[in-house]
Amino acid sequence: MHKKHPKDITSPCGYKIRIVTKNGLVTPVEVTVARNKDEGNGVSCVVLKDISKKMQLEHKMNKSFNALKAKLKKRETELKTVSDQLHSHQKELVATRSELEHLNQELVQTTQAVSVLAKNIDSKKVELEEKVNTTITTKIMPIIRDLQTDEKIKKYWPEINSMAEHLNSIATKNNLHHKTISVLTETEMKVAAMVKNGMTSKKIAGLMHISSETVKSHRKKIRRKLKIHKTKWKLSSYLVSVLGE
Fold first, then answer.
1. Which of 20, 28, 181, 195 would suit a FRET pair with 121, their CA atoms being 20 to 30 Å apart?
2. How many domains does the chain have?
3. Helix (H, G, I), strand (E, B) or coil at 44
4. Residue 124 belongs to some domain of the structure
5. Is the pTM above the cut of 0.85?
6. Residue 230 domain-assigned?
7. 138 CB-contact burial (10 Å; exposed 0-12 / middle 13-18 / buried 19+)
8. Angle, alpha carbons 199-200-205 (nearest 5°)
9. In which domain, by residue range, is 27 found?
10. Residue 158's pLDDT is what?
């Protein structure tokens, strides 16, 4: 038998067809045909190959690919939406940051202004306090001391003595002085002021038009409020030490 050289064989060509069997079953088939170059010889080689499984596999692969492609597209859309949202939030954050920086700057400026104002107020307060204290000490208190010894108006001595202590309370920076004034009633303050100035209970009673027993009762209350009722302090001495002469 004479063998043909491969170069004498034409390149094979393939086709896809469907074969229908008698029972109606359709089978996809791949047909490969190769012809002999020798025209005098009509020998051809035909190969039939069942490609149903291959096509099923290709169908599944295409289906999976399309599903994957759809998922990727959906994911791409979602990512774009998230990206747009992030971009929008970034713009909002930048705007908010800018606004906060502006507000912080205004707050710093306001704080500085308030600080300057507070210093000015403190300065004015100190200046005013010094002016008031000087006026009370140099102008008012000398007049009050003269009135405290003026026999013509001795009926007003309780009020004058009480007023003197209130004025001293304004002029002094002694906390104990302020505390003493604040815990006593107006009547007790009048009694305390006269006791401090060395007046007896009898004289105080006469000036205030009350009994000596009432004066003694006030003295006891004053000692109790000043928390010296269980001490050896003499009331007049203690009042001088606290309120001044």
1. 181
2. 2
3. strand
4. no
5. no
6. yes
7. exposed
8. 100
9. 12-50
10. 86
